[in-house]
Amino acid sequence: MSHSRKHRQWPNFTELFDDFFNTEEFGLKNWGRFPSANVRETDTSFIIDLVVPGRTKKDIKIHQEKDALVVSSEVKSGEVDGEFRRREFQLAPFKRSFHLPDAADHDKIDAKFKDGILTITIAKKEEEAKVQREIKIS
């Protein structure tokens, strides 16, 4: 590399962070609209894990609308005394829907909340649940 090249000024970490996360596509403008979710399937159930930090189970509502499970929260960030030098998070209200597949038993839905994770377990209909057993070879 030649020493005669003009030295390029690199932005500091804060500038890179701001440039990346303040875009419309990836930005803070989209954060908080609804929580991230993982959806898993076992032989007997469907499991939805939602990350809902800063909320309590009293802040979260779950209800069924036809073939959808709707999770929502109306909690908002309270007023904080003093001026912010930087504010990147707020507890914004959200509403998120999950389609219930035909194999879901709408009468057997359970929800648990622990450490900021909401886990919803939806049992499969008995005729849809995969029964596993070993077949002996004779």
Structure, explained:
This protein is mostly beta strands and 138 residues long. It is 7% helix and 36% strand. It has one domain (13-80, 88-124): Immunoglobulin-like (Sandwich). The chain has one helix at residues 13-21; strands at 37-41, 45-51, 60-65, 68-73, 94-99, 104-114, 117-124. It starts with 12 loop residues before the first helix and ends in a 14-residue tail after the last strand.
List keywords for this structure.
single chain; 138 residues; mainly beta
Major β-sheet, in short? 4 strands, antiparallel
Strand content: 35-45%
Q: Tell me the CATH topology.
A: Immunoglobulin-like
Approximately how much helix is present in the residues? under 10%
Spell out the helices and strands N to C.
HEEEEEEE
General shape? elongated
Task: Calculate Rg over CA atoms.
Answer: 23 Å
Distance between the termini: 73 Å
Number of helices: 1
Overall pLDDT level: 76
Q: List unreliable stretches of 5+ residues.
A: 4-8, 16-32
